[in-house]
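Task 17 of the worksheet. Students: predict the tertiary structure of the chain below and write it out as structure tokens. Keep your answer in the requested format; marks are given for formatting as well as content.
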Amino acid sequence: MEDNIEVLLQDRSLRYKCSRHLTLAIGAVFTGVYGMWAMFCLPGFRVPFKLKVPFLPSPEQQTRNVLKFLEGRSGLLADLGSGDGRLVLGAWSMGFQCTGYEVNPVLLAYSRARVWWRGIPPKHVRFLSQDFWKTDLSKYQNVTVFLAPAVMEQLEQKLRAELPPNARVVVCRFPLPNWPPSGSQGVGLEQVWAYDVAPRPTD
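Model answer:
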């Protein structure tokens, strides 16, 4: 009888150890996955928490919708929160000189690697590790944006205050709240809106 109790206790101890090791292993895997997600998807530490926006890649159709609003236009283009660089590279293929602003170091390195791999000269495409909220955007005639709804009102104020006459802003998925759009393309998650800055009044 005592032997049976001892065997039972040993079995329970072994199960506890296995369960504990399994829990630790699952926790380690979860922590590792979360760490990789955070490095790839979250912006850098320099951006205030209320302005942080996670990375969401643009669907292919959404990117095409953005590029339609850039047809026939010229001048410098800025992509605010450029992520993996797909919008910048799409605009470059249309002849724009492009600058992508991205503070996530993993996404920044990936975007720069894509430019290097394609052999694109730096004067045509640049990806800057720079907080666009602290950057004067007055030299850009074209701006593309794919950010979160929580920051769109503040972004609208910045764009309307800084962009030059005749500039165009194209935003993905989440419209600017108070600026009447000039047009839209697509529906649902692929919808984009264009906003035009009024021309300078003539005397």
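Marker's comment: The chain has five helices and seven strands. Confidence is low (pLDDT under 50) at residues 27-52.
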